[in-house]
């Protein structure tokens, strides 16, 4: 490594120069400023759409999968409420709108050269980079489980084959069979999702004549999102079917045995489970960690007012990979972060004042087909962090008509969200 290289990195660590680089007008040697987006999920596609509003930039989206599967709505498919086709989308609409879609895997990021290295050996230079790589799973976080064991004990925390496998295994659970879900520690993708998943599994089982099945959730957390609402719903709709094991009751998850379908806790051993759904600990997608944009937590720290990386002001990190305060890892939040990042990116490139940032997130969860609950929050930068300034949550005992309207509200949001991403 050259002395100049070391010096440059040291300078980039200075906050004054970092701020200057972010806000300095871009002077392109040729053509438009180049913005490369890595990741075609809720964050990346919303960022691409936001950037298309200004014709002064060239937008490239790097995404290896030809079809996107909306994991954030997938529990409804597990519950038999929607078809799989409602989850799957292509990138043709973005391409028609003017985004250059590169169907390649991004293997590495060279921050010195400002290049994205592709799996086929190609390189994409950028003036600004938006990273929305989602999550990686920590396969070592559950003793006895591994990448090789994800077929026997699926996680289904990403789209595609794992989701189909979990649905196939759920449909094979007999009446009276046992399902064990191992919930992840904080922070993780979509805080209510494991509990909505348990609800939709119970709905599927009960609606297909298997109401004698049992679902046990082994949780490392002493509480979870909308806990009282879920537990009220389980007692009302699925009495005796869903049991949540807090860590002080289970005495913690000890190990799993994929060969025998066994889950061992400090309190009890669950043998010959018909289905074990392991949802492990999570961290930022590998490309972000490879680029040196994650800290010791495994997540990517960001500037609360712009979503710019705290470690490189020419890179914006949005969606599940980012961590910066109170805002949860949700598809709604990723879309909100994309808008903030796009505005800050334009301001930095063209020398304008960046508007003040604000964020929002709403998560709807179905307990039955017509019983939906939600949690919402508004967020703003405060003291260097993204802080919640207003929050609302469904109330216990709400009338069925209101819960049905929330279900319709969720469906309307989903249609609008995916239309904005892919339409």
Automatic annotation (TrEMBL):
Name of the protein: FCSD flavin-binding domain-containing protein
Tell me the domain of life: Bacteria
Q: Which residues form the signal peptide?
A: 1-29
Organism of provenance: Xanthobacter aminoxidans
Q: Which residues form the Flavocytochrome c sulphide dehydrogenase flavin-binding domain?
A: 355-422
Keywords, A to Z?
Answer: FAD, Flavoprotein, Signal
User: Which InterPro entries does the protein's record reference?
Assistant: FAD/NAD-bd_sf, FAD/NAD-binding_dom, FAD/NAD-linked_Rdtase_dimer_sf, FCSD_central, FlavoCytC_S_DH_flav-bd, FlavoCytC_S_DH_flav-bd_sf, SQRD, TAT_signal
The protein's matches in Pfam families, at most eight in alphabetical order, are given as: FCSD-flav_bind, FCSD_central, Pyr_redox_2
Q: Is Flavoprotein one of the keywords UniProt gives this record?
A: yes
Q: Where is the FAD/NAD(P)-binding domain positioned along the sequence?
A: 34-135
- Indicate whether Signal appears among the record's keywords: yes
Identify the residues that the record assigns to the Sulfide dehydrogenase [flavocytochrome c] flavoprotein chain central domain, covering every copy. 164-280
């Amino acid at each position: 490594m050259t002395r100049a290289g070391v010096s440059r990195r040291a300078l980039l660590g200075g906050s004054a120069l970092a701020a200057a680089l972010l806000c300095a007008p871009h002077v392109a040697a040729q053509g438009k400023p180049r913005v490369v987006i890595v990741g075609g999920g809720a964050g990346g596609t919303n960022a691409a759409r936001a950037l298309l509003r200004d014709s002064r930039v060239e937008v490239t989206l790097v995404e290896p999968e030809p079809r996107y599967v909306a994991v954030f709505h997938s529990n409804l498919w597990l519950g038999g409420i929607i078809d799989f086709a409602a989850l799957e989308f292509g990138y043709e609409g973005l391409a028609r709108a003017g985004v250059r879609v590169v169907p390649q895997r991004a293997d590495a990021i060279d921050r010195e050269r400002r290049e994205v290295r592709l799996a086929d050996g190609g390189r994409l230079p950028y003036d600004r980079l938006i990273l929305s790589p989602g999550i990686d799973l920590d396969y070592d976080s559950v003793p006895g489980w591994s990448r090789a064991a994800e077929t026997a004990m699926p996680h289904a925390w990403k789209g595609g084959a794992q989701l189909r496998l979990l649905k196939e295994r759920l449909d094979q659970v007999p009446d009276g069979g046992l399902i064990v879900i191992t919930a992840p520690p904080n922070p993780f993708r979509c805080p209510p999702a494991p509990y909505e998943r348990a609800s939709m599994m119970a709905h599927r089982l009960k609606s297909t004549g298997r109401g004698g099945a049992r679902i046990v959730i082994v949780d490392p957390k002493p509480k979870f999102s909308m806990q009282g609402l879920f537990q009220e719903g389980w007692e009302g709709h699925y009495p005796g079917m869903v049991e949540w094991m807090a860590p002080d009751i289970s005495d913690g998850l000890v190990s799993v045995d994929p060969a025998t379908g066994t889950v061992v806790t400090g309190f009890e051993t669950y043998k010959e489970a018909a289905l074990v759904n392991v949802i492990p600990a999570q961290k930022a997608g590998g490309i972000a960690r490879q680029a040196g944009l994650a800290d010791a937590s495994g997540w990517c720290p960001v500037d609360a007012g712009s979503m710019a990386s705290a470690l490189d002001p020419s890179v914006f990190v949005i969606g599940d990979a980012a961590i910066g305060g109170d805002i949860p890892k949700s598809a709604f939040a990723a879309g909100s972060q994309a808008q903030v990042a796009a505005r800050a990116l334009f301001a930095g490139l063209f020398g304008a004042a960046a508007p003040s940032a604000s964020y929002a997130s709403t998560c709807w969860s179905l307990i039955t087909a017509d019983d939906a609950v939600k949690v919402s929050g508004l967020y703003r930068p405060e003291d260097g962090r993204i802080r919640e300034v207003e929050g609302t949550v469904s109330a216990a005992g709400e009338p069925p008509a209101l819960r049905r309207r929330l279900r319709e509200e969720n469906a309307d949001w989903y249609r609008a969200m995916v239309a904005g991403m892919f339409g």
